[in-house]
User: Fold this.
Amino acid sequence: MITLCVLYYFRRLSWLSRDQHWINSLLGCIMTNGVWEIKEISLANSTVQLCVSANPNIHPQAGQYFLTFSPQMDEPLAVPLFFAGTSNTDWILSGQISTQWQPGTRLHWRGPLGHGFQLPPASRRVALVDWKTQAYSLPALVSLALAQDANVVWYSHRLPEWLPPSVEVLPLESLADAWDWADYLAIECDYKDIPQLVAALMTSSSRKPGCITEFLLRTSLTCGGMAECGVCAVRTKTGLKLACKDGPVFNTDQLELTV
Amino acid sequence: MNGDVRPELFLSPGWMNAAGFLGFTPLAGSSIGQSPVAFVTNPISYKPRTSAADRFCSPFPGGFLLHTGWPNPGFRKAVKQYSARWARSEVQVYVHLLAEQAHEVNQMVRALEETDGAAAIELSLPPTTKDDLRLQLVKAALGELPVTVCVPLDQVNAAWVGEVVDLGISWLVVSAPRGMVRNGTGGFARGRMYGPGLFPQMLQAIGCLRAYGIPFVAGSGVYDQQSIQALLSAGASAVQLDAVLWRGWEIENSG
Assistant:
């Protein structure tokens, strides 16, 4: 336990941010399970969010997810819920939430699963990109970035009404400018949209990114790493990786990005 | 029956995972709070396979359709990588082989006979193939280890099943049926069907399976403990669980 606490401390320092996957692998052992009761369901910027009691022993990162299911309902698969932030002593979770879930519904969960975003503490110019999705995890990065006095720009195809006034909102058409300005870029997009995204980001696939860039790739997260079933496989420079356990957040240096 | 002595293996009543649902090596615990009676590896092919380019998971009312391409490192690498853990496993390990060519099946099975840790061979046959090729593939697998053959739920009545049974396999396993969904571009996508909506069909198939006169492992659509008990009471020797292992069930009601 002491070793894991030390590892957690090192991860919070984040000076290892780009080479710390071995630490995250060990921290993955902290994954646990339990039961939540949904406190509240709300709609924020077209995204349905859940509010549940935070577990003080777990510290999920933006981009990590929990696999959840309600035993009262006949759902064949667990629903991935992404950590979207905190509110007092509660967690905000986001995902493709069942329409049958109501406040008071019990949810069995396991997690946090996968690798999340690694916002470097030194970053002062943070660009967050909601690439034609309903961003599940980026909201958690907004508060983290603002807490470290970073300037934050949100790129989106829609105007999010919930963003703090200090966050600048820009359209996706101006995304290529992010390279020149940002020192950290976090993107949430469907895996199938990668070619369009890369085309918008770079004039050619060989162009080097100018800042630390991480992608949350939205794909089916069915087994949560239990089976290596391969349905969430993502092309990387070292072959196919599984989004459910090697992701869903990947560094741009890992990914095979082709236009 | 062809008169050959069928290799014996006691099949304990209880649950085991369906191939493809718990990886290549047994886990320390289970998501459903009970210990399995055996562990079935992910499907292993003779040559390495990567995830299918058109992989998908598509829900439908009562279940979901899954197409993955059964990615695996290939037989040689899988044995090298996992056989030590199979040998150390506290539960019996059944190695699931994807049968494509008879000579490949023969090579894989002979190698497994020399490998510690493999208690039985579970064979899945290509989804679209002629009956005589199916028989060749099963014949190639017969040997010192017990051989079990997967029969998709929608094919338990097919003529080839009785012929396979007559070759001297040890038991049958009911596996996921195949289905199609619209793929969003106007076409159709094929995959394996899972989910609680299949359970009534599984229960209905029991009568047919009993008629074959050999043990069988029921599978498909099992999402709660009552379903396991129902299948065992109806004559199944054991039950395979699939996607419920990823989802979990309510352990506190496990009585």
About this structure: Residues 49 and 72 of chain B are 5 Å apart (CA to CA). Chain B is about 25% helix and 25% strand. The helical segments of chain B are 75-88, 102-113, 131-141, 159-166, 199-210, 225-233, 244-247.
